[in-house]
Known about the structure:
Radius of gyration: 25 Å
Amino acid sequence: MRSLFAFLLFSAITTYNIQAQVSIDKALIAKFDQLLSEKFKSNETGATALISKKGQVIYKKAFGMANLELNVPMQTENVFRIGSISKQFTAIAILQLMEQGKLSLQDDITKFIPDYPTHGHKITVEHLLTHTSGIQSYTNMKEFGAISRLDKKPEELIQFFKNQPMEFAPGTKWNYNNSGYFLLGYIIKKVSGKTYPEYIEENIFKALGMNNSYYGSDSKIIKNRAAAYGKDNKGFVNADPLSMTLPYAAGSLQSTVEDLYKWNQAVQTYKLVKKETLDKAFTPYVLADGKKTDYGYGWGIDNIQGSTAIQHGGGIPGFLTMGIYLPKEDVFVALFSNCDCNSPEETAVKLAALTIGKPFEYTESKADTTAMKQVTGVYEIPGDEEQRYITYSDGKLYSQRNRSTKFNIKPYEKDKYFFESMMNSIEFVRNKSGEVEKLIFKGRSEPTEWMKTNKPIPSIMEIDVDESILESYTGDYELGPNFILTVTKEDNQLITQATGQGKIEIFAETETKFFVKVMDAQLEFVKDSTGKVEKLILTQGGQKMHAKKIK
């Protein structure tokens, strides 16, 4: 449960009363205004933004409309559903209970939910916090849509998802998981003797003076609540209803940008948990094979222009939110959007980069055709199966990761290129002889080094397949007990969806062979002697899995 003005904003635009000790950089403020006004139009759905530096708010404004139907402009005091930003509140609550000696992060969840099926594994509280439990996320279940408007008690929703098959052994992989945080909310209830809403209200909202923050409710009268919107091919629409009993500890909280600032200040000054505890929350979890994830306890750990960024976004029908903290520079950015059609994530990152004086601004330089051709090839990360293809065509250079989308990269310095409309860049490194030996990819995570190989660039061509042939591939394929891969067709495009997971498009390279753009995976449909499709073969991670067509 996931990612923000023209000059006619009247009194809806307000600027925070900046304390005297913080100097105002008018040019910087103007850049904030420009970036946000381009993203959030005055007559469309809106956003609220807050930026602080060294403990002082330097910018707070509102943009667009809080309610399109009543023509109400957005105000900085408007209350938004913050979605998965709620997870950091849940994580802190768990850590408080740990410090009080009421639980251990290594406790098996069956200590609190005795009948929870763990399939012979030990699933710990820490696994839930770090999205490494292997439990399937209930929001990815096909059946979730049928209950999305129904109020459920925590015990009822746990019953809804607990018998789903495990996705992997605990601690071996990372997969974002709302079920884990739902269970954490229930554990808070069992350990503290208070319901999750009661615990958060008493121990966080009231304690910190977060007077405009609430556990989500559609029936409660909430002053300054922003309306929730989506968008279809005809324009803006009211967001789909969702019972707030369902996101629970994974995403049901509501707040304002100023209250989220209060929250961040309290967290960073150790008013809620000790420094040594917080340090663990902000440390990337390490999997069983030694690989680091990009997630701690309730926060993601990222990178913005070389600076560590502790962050989380939220997505819930009608709202997308983003909160970013840069500890080295003591910069905090909160950006809330009241349309799930307009993500604030990229804009929030750009605001943070501007604030620390490292904006994502590149000026394209003249292309050096010879240099471009020299960097083409296949690049790999040692010990990893992923590949990056650098290709040259019609005077342009392109980067493509496995079979994913091919992006044009543009030069801004010698051997340095940027992705247009993205916050990524690539630097090619040459040896003493002037030969390209590797590339450094810089994005939101830590920079990664890809070594140049002598392997040929594969020919990856997407072709069109007759609609009747695509139709013959639709159906259910059994990958394992209670694990089904469903293939459907939407607008002449094949879509796959595994049990408990989201939808993924597949693309044809031959009439029977298809590939995935978002990961390194291929599918081949196999027919029997009569021409009837009898199975598919899924190739992923070097393994082949045969799945019989059962429907």
